[in-house]
Amino acid sequence: MTKQKIKEFRSVAVIALMSLILLWQNIEQSPWREKEVIQTDAKVYHIYLPATIINKDPFLELETPDKIKRYGTHTSPIGRNAVKMSMGVAMMNLPFFYGGHLYALSNDNYAVDGYSEPYQLAISLSSVFYMIMGLIFLWLVLKRTFSDLISLLTILFIGVGTNLYYYSIYETGLSHPCTFFLLSALLYLIHNWLSQKKMWKSILMGAILGLIVLVRPINILFILPLILLFKTQDLKWSAYLKQLFLPFSYVLAIVLGGFLIILPQLIFWKIQTGSLVYYTYGDEGFFWSNPHIWEGLFSFRKGWFIYTPLMLFALYGMVRLYKIQKMYFWAIAFFLPLFLYITFSWWSWWYGGSFGARTLIDILPFMAFPLAGLIDWIFQKRWRLIILIIPLYFVYVNLYQSWQYSHKMLHYDSMTFEGYKTIFLKHYTPDEYWGQLRKPDYVNALKYGIEKVSLPILNDPVPTFSEEDIQNMIEYIKTDEKWIKEIELKAMDRNQSVDSVLRNHVIWLFENKKVK
Question: Where do the TM regions start and end (predicted)?
């Protein structure tokens, strides 16, 4: 076996091990047992599947008004039910939904309703599956420019050092892992298509592009950097454009592939709203003259560089990227400011309850290039092991804060600098923490694009118990043989430590006022 083959085998082994760990983490940490996967936005993305497959009601005519309201639908101009989210995520989750559906049909213990435990687990697994597949395609793309080791380290950092990890492990069922996978796969396919054009590749490219847009319509912006990204330095623009668009039959095949994917959505909109293209967000919109780019990057509420500091580190790699592949540099340098401007011009620039700037998960395949460039530069230095401490620390921060957010320690929309400082890398919430948080001014942000008041979190359940109360209750439970035995069995069933399950159980008791 050659050295190259050995290196490739090692990389494949590492990726396989990483995939198994991520899959295990998803099954253990995702709240599918509590039926809390298909919640909030995930419930809206999901509605197409049970409505069509189980209820035989694709146009939501048989649902009660109470259910319709819970699902995030609204009445269209022609009086029919319209869904806020497009059906791209539902299409991506369809194979997993069918798997859960078949299991529920074969087991009398679960309701065949699209929301019982088999469906919850299936949707949760879809997120980690698309994360893993996205990382694999991204590795294959990076290997064309960087060494095998640099490419491998880059996807490992992306996988566990960004909030992609949180939305693939803890809070699943959303659009971001789907977009990450689709964009990574498209990057791989475009390079392959430029090397050898085939009609089937063109149709597949169009289908992936259609899905990317259908998952989140703003993703249509990805076309801009994709056009720039694959131009080589020795190829003139005229020759490159000919390479892209000729023969024109391949372009028509791309358009056809995209159209066939988007067609079901157009039909749905036409029937439900009377229009082929319909804006589903009502009064929600963009404030182009008042973008919140600084807050989106550096605020302690949701700042990208605060909650995903690895990306600030990655930006330094743009200098190295310019030397390695200029068109990669120019594609990202052109696209990133535009995407940030549009993203943070949205009225709710913090995007409601979320861990960090979750909308920027979608562009991680692009950001992998400067990150790989920086890692490549580091490995050329004698003191590379010392410098690597920085991104490794950022990975640790991301993993710890993901755990904090999943345990409702980091607040979903009201974080401040004071609150962040108080709770930073702590495994409990100090008593003063809750008073340091401030609720966003949703009313004025929606109306004017500006928050005018700073609000305390009066409507949130502020714990009335302290860390001392938690420890006292833990010690009490340990004296009760029957109670502690139940905790041990639960820990064994979940494959978690007894201390972790015990602590979470005590917090649950206090929060639900089971003890005083």
Answer: 119-142, 149-168, 174-191, 203-228, 248-269, 328-347, 359-379, 385-403
* First-residue to last-residue Cα distance in the chain: 66
Q: Is residue 455 part of a domain?
A: yes
Q: Which domain holds residue 424?
A: 408-462
Coil/strand/helix, residue 281: coil
Q: Is residue 475 part of a domain?
A: yes
Q: What SS3 state is found at 165?
A: helix
Within a domain: 354? no
**Spacing of C-alpha 81 from chain mean position:** 27
Q: Model-level pTM?
A: 0.86
What dihedral do alpha carbons 167, 170, 173, 178 form, nearest 10°? Answer: 30
Q: CA 427, CA 407: separation in Å to the nearest integer?
A: 10
- Assigned domain for 428 exists: yes
458 and 468 part of one domain: no
The two tokens of residue 510 are 């206090």
Per-residue pLDDT of the chain (516 residues; tens, 9 = 90+): 566 677 678 888 989 999 999 999 999 888 888 888 888 888 889 999 998 998 888 887 766 665 666 666 777 888 888 888 899 999 999 999 999 999 999 988 888 888 889 999 999 999 999 999 999 999 999 999 899 999 999 999 999 999 999 999 999 999 999 999 999 999 999 988 888 888 998 999 999 999 999 999 999 999 888 888 877 767 777 777 787 778 888 889 999 999 999 999 999 999 988 889 888 888 889 999 999 999 999 999 999 999 999 999 999 999 889 988 888 899 999 999 999 999 999 999 999 889 999 999 999 999 999 999 999 999 888 887 888 899 999 999 999 999 999 988 899 888 999 999 999 998 888 878 888 898 888 888 888 888 877 777 754 555 556 667 777 788 778 877 778 888 877 776 665 667 777 887 887 777 665 555
Backbone CA torsion sign across 274, 275, 278, 282? negative
CA distances from 104 to 24, 51, 100, 127, 493 (A): 22, 16, 6, 20, 21
Q: Which residues pair with 377 in a beta bridge?
A: none
Among 169, 162, 46, 210, which residue's Cα sits nearest to residue 113? Answer: 46
Collapsed DSSP state (helix, strand, coil) of residue 85:
coil
Q: Which amino acid is residue 431, in one-letter code?
A: D
Which amino acid makes up residue 201? K
Q: Are residues 432 and 469 in the same domain?
A: no
Cα separation, 487 vs 503, whole angstroms: 10
d(CA 125, CA 26): 7
The CA distance from 304 to 299, in Å, is: 8
Q: Of 464, 480, 411, nearest to 439 (Cα)?
A: 411
What single DSSP character describes residue 87? S
Please report, as a single letter, which amino acid is at residue 347.
W
For residue 189, the one-letter residue type is: L
Task: Summarize the chain as % helix, strand, coil (round to 5).
Answer: 65, 0, 35
Query: 3-state class of 247 per DSSP?
Result: coil
Give the length of the chain.
516
